[in-house]
Amino acid sequence: MNIQYWSKRCASLAMLAMLHPGFAHAQQAASAAKPALTIAPKSSDLVQHYVLSPLAEAPLTEAQKLALLQKNIKYVFVLFQENRSFDFYFGTYPGANGLYSQPASETPGLTQPIVNTDGTVGTISAFRIPLSVTDANGNTVPIYPADTDSVNHSHAAYETKIDVKGGVTRNDGYAITEEGITLNNGVPSKVPTLAQKQMGELVMGHVDCNTAPILWNYADRFTLFDDFHQTVLSASTPNALAMIAGQSGETQWVKHPTEATTSLSSNGVPVISDGDPFWGSQLDTTPVATKQPANPPSASPEINLTFATLPLSFMGSAIQTTVQTDTQPAADLTDVEKDITEIAGNGVKPTNWGWYEQGYDHEFNDPGATATHADFIAHHDAPQYFGYISNNPAVSSHLHGLSDFAEDVANKQLPAAGGVFYVRGGYNNLQGLSPVDPNPKLATVFNGNDDHPGYSDVQISSALLADEINLITTSPYWPQSAIIITYDETDGLYDHAPEIIRNYDPEGYPLDQGPRIPTIVISPYSVTHAIAHEATEHSSIIKFIDLLFGLEPLANLPDEKQAKADGLLMFGQAYLGPADAGVAGVGNLFTAFDNNRLTGAAAPLPAAYAQIPENLVNTFPQAGNNGCQALGITPTDAGLPNNVPADFNPRPSSTPGVPTSGTWTP
Questions:
Q1: Owning domain of residue 518
Q2: Where are the beta strands (DSSP E) in 295-405?
Q3: Which residues pair with 111 in a beta bridge?
Q4: How far is the C-alpha of 404 from the C-alpha of 636, rounded, in Å?
Q5: Domain membership flag for residue 458
Q6: How confident is the model at residue 179 (pLDDT cuts 50, 70, 90)?
Q7: Which of 61, 97, 354, 358 is the most buried (most CB within 10 A)?
Q8: Inter-residue long-range contacts of 565-569, CB under 8 Å, 24+ positions, other chains counted
Q9: Nearest to 485 by CA among 246, 216, 271
């Protein structure tokens, strides 16, 4: 069994050619005609969508809508990708809050300072990374925008990139921060090298439907959220934690101030960096046979995390029995003892769940029967950070590899009662796909599938999403599913939308929340061709799961609630902790679901509507680099100048220099 099986299953179906010209905007399997592009605001003013029928949307209270969601949706799939900003992918998506949806003067950071290699201070504007450039000799040189280097996404870099002044985020420090430069009264602190300047340029680049046709296809057909923010103003690990906890450890900091993260003690709480989990590290004395995986084991891991998460809530009424098999209860459970009692007393049955991450265990392409963990990225594996998960075999059994997801779905092995299932890629890809760029060096660099710049290719990563979604749609789970494509953080790539800072770290720097990330909701009950303006973040996914499965919000569990109250008294901060309740501006994703489909006034979307044929998924470049034409979408920068810097290079580290006649000249 392997991931190639997904495409084989899908190829046997009579699929819709979703990216084929003239058919890409089919509204449903039964109707290929596209209506007039009339944008109709809903009465809530949270969603805009193309009108599909003369039926007015059935009015529903939130309680009524929740009851229908609970009736119709049993499976939540979170396809959790890496390190892209909303503007990087969708800054020119029609109808969204993008780079050109308002005057330039009202777009924070659209033009910002950059320091040239001669020491002068210039400006740079956001630009589309082109498929090719013209070199100094007039030659057309392909530059392959699907493969870009990773930029600076540390906590400190995020702070200067968003540039908070007077409580307002100006988002105009991306380029010079990326160069590693500060301006003092307009004078740069140093002169950048060519590579440093090119990194400053890269952070301002974005792509569109030609480079990312599969993502734009899903956004067009289903519901794209254009106000979904990463929770923590920092790197991947804190936001992976936020996906299951709504925080990165603020309540643990309140309870244990000596564990606070500072410039002198970086591996503390709240977590603000990408240290690996303690469990599986060199400091972990767990016997090798039962130790969590790592590649390689870290000598400087994060501390054991002890605050509440969804996996704790998922234990439900069986929680007091489940935690008895924790091998280190004193270290793991003390901070959640009251939470455990509360969860046990709520009478909610356990919720099935799984975390599937590439390389966690044996993958089909591992040589032999032993797991190599070659593609495993421990600092992306959020559950592994918590001792009450890693040290409890009954709970850690919910952690799996990516091949296991293919097998469980294809073989109909997911629980009949439904559940929540997170899916993540990793280094490399299991299908042996290579990027389009013919440079043989890059074939072994940009072949990852979780979309992280620096090692993943945009189209290979999109292929993984399409394979996962195709697999779900050919299974019995599609009619009762909600699929959420989302990301952990932006990688530090430019996004113009202002952030709302509600929390500060132990040294007083902005902590929550961060810039926007792409998020798309796909379901048989989706609003189609929709742009949701609902204010959302990772905690919104938690809130949706809380409501769907009848779980008490993490923020209302007694240990977390008390820590939140203590945080106000101790640090003068009212919102330290989970944001799935009691925090304004954190929606529940309900705007993604069509009332008429939920009530039965309109038919649920058929599986074929969400499927993409194998030949379009795994043929690179996808849609022949003409995805916009194939989809029939005109990006909002069409006809506008595209101010690509003359010395631009999307990969200053991987292919240093400037493009010349198909090569790179240092």
A1: 4-95+208-631
A2: 353-357, 399-400
A3: 125
A4: 41
A5: yes
A6: very high
A7: 358
A8: 566/254, 566/255, 567/250, 567/251, 567/254
A9: 216
CB 611 within 8 A of CB 18: yes
Helix (H, G, I), strand (E, B) or coil at 174: helix
- From the centroid of its chain, how far is CA 131? 25
Q: H-type helices in 18-93, by residue range?
A: 62-72, 86-90
Token pair for residue 344? 């046990």
| Cα–Cα dist 231/235, whole Å | 10
Closest CA to 662 of 282, 144, 299: 144
When pLDDT is cut at 50, 70 and 90, the band that residue 39 belongs to is: very low
**Is the separation of the CB atoms in 643 and 122 below 8 Å?**
no
pTM: 0.93
Quick check: is 39 in a domain? Answer: yes
* Cα separation, 313 vs 512, whole angstroms: 23
The Cα 364–Cα 1 span in angstroms is 7
Handedness of CA 205, 211, 214, 218 (dihedral sign): positive
Asked if the structure places residue 203 within a domain, the reply is no
Q: Is the peptide bond before 604 cis (omega within 30 degrees of 0)?
A: no
What six digits make up the tokens of 144?
């392959």
d(CA 38, CA 41) in angstroms, rounded, equals 10
Q: Which residue shows structure tokens 């495993």?
A: 376
pLDDT at 257 over 80: yes
pLDDT at 207: 98
- Is 275 a domain residue? yes
CA distance 86 to 577: 25
Provide the token pair at 15.
Answer: 């699929």
Q: Is residue 288 classed exposed, middle or buried when 0-12, 13-18 and 19+ CB atoms within 10 A define those classes?
A: exposed
Q: Which of 43-47, 338-342, 648-652 has the lowest mean pLDDT?
A: 43-47
Residue 6, strand partner residues: none
Per the structure, the count of domains in the chain is 1
